[in-house]
Design a protein that fits this description.
This is VanZ like family protein. This protein has 5 helices and no strands. With 135 residues, it is an all-alpha fold. The radius of gyration is 16 Å and the shape is elongated.
């Protein structure tokens, strides 16, 4: 049972990350734009969407990394954030070359800020959990 419980963070992260990749690909291919713009509006606009979706991604990635990276929480979180910032930069960079998309440095900034916020939120939860465990 414990092994199954440890799999959920990784499964949630993978499903969410794949969902974000599909969302970006659909927007690039101009598929489902009405729904995508509806999601943007629901999340408070383009920049707010970049921040929110990135923060959620960071939290899920940090929890998922606990199972595969045997490092101290801060070291592991820094590594996860570096990978996520690289992936975010790649996605935003691809928008520069696609005619159907528009590159904006602010999107990268809000996404990066979301990743940082999510990672700090994860570390805060880890800190509280570590303090609440009996010695």
């Amino acid at each position: 049972m414990k092994a199954e419980a440890q799999r959920w963070p990784a499964v949630l992260f993978l499903v969410y990350a794949i969902g974000l990749i599909v969302l970006s690909a659909c927007k690039s291919a101009e598929i489902g734009l009405t729904q995508i713009h509806g999601l943007e509006a629901w999340l408070g606009g383009d920049k707010s969407m970049h921040f929110t979706l990135s923060a959620i991604l960071a939290v899920l990635a940090c929890f998922a990394s606990e199972r595969v990276l045997d490092l101290a929480p801060i070291t592991r979180t820094i590594g996860v954030c570096c990978v996520l910032v690289a992936a975010l930069s790649l996605d935003e960079g691809l928008q520069y070359v696609l005619a159907s998309r528009r590159f904006e440095l602010l999107d990268l900034a809000f996404g990066s800020l979301g990743l940082l916020t999510g990672a700090l939120g994860y570390l805060s939860v880890r800190f509280v959990w570590s303090r609440s465990k009996p010695a």
